From TrEMBL:
Record's protein name: YegS/Rv2252/BmrU family lipid kinase
Gene3D superfamilies, A to Z: 2.60.200.40, Probable inorganic polyphosphate/atp-NAD kinase, domain 1
InterPro entries: ATP-NAD_kinase_N (IPR017438), Diacylglycerol_kinase_cat_dom (IPR001206), Lipid_Phosphate_FormReg (IPR050187), NAD/diacylglycerol_kinase_sf (IPR016064), YegS/DAGK_C (IPR045540)
PROSITE patterns in alphabetical order: DAGK
UniProt GO MF annotations: ATP binding; kinase activity
A GO cellular component entry from the record: plasma membrane
Amino acid sequence: MEKILFIINPIAGKKTGKNINQDIIRYLDTDNFKPHFKYSEYAGHISEIAKQALIEEYKVIIAVGGDGTVNETGRILVHSNIPMGIIPIGSGNGLARHLRIPLSVKGAVRLINKMDILQMDAIRINGMYSFCVAGIGFDAEVSRMFQKMKARGLFSYIIACLRCFNQSKNQDFIVRIKQKEHHLNGFMMCCANASQFGNNAYIAPGANVSDGIIDLVLVKKPSYLQIPIFAFKTFTGTLKNHSLYSRINGSEFEITQENDFAHLDGEPTKVGTKFTVAIEEKALPVIY
């Protein structure tokens, strides 16, 4: 019987994690797994729990929360060969949706019982990690505002987008790849491992989390008249055909921006005005 740890973020999404352990036990194959549960209590606690779990030799570690919870767990497990599972109860659940992990506890736990493993890439940015989508510019500003909001969920995220839209503008970026410099101007720039931000908003349709490639996406600011069709294409996975959208593929970039902040899987952080982005292939085994 394998020791399995569920790291639960009790305030993820609509705070559905508070009493989720009984639902997990109901569907978990307890003939093969001995479950343990730990709840995060403060910022950074999830990574602390994951570190201790490695010391205590858990065989499987499950992130119960949103993309932030997945990131905090995954960044500790990279290159450890310990599989990470996901029970998605967050606001967007971008990586879980990309991997087609069910959004129900029952469905997600049934995948854990099967233990099918995908060797997933990780994007390293100045020593930090992103497993879904990282970004600078507009979406980084949105992530900072969203983090300060009391309510979570899609509605709050839309409000954050609307508030940031008016004050945000195109900025200059320099992207260096294979000794060649690209001088670009845009509203936001995303480094995508997976295809979407979350809530089925596709910023990099067709992206593959195990192909050794970063999809570097540049989006120019849409006008108010362009927003409806831009939003439609985002949620239907057809953005690549829009005139404001461009994309570069590669395994390593050096990026210069006007600001000094970014978001990693929706969590705001500082990366500086110049930073390096690189792919680490097959860095994390994930249950899917």
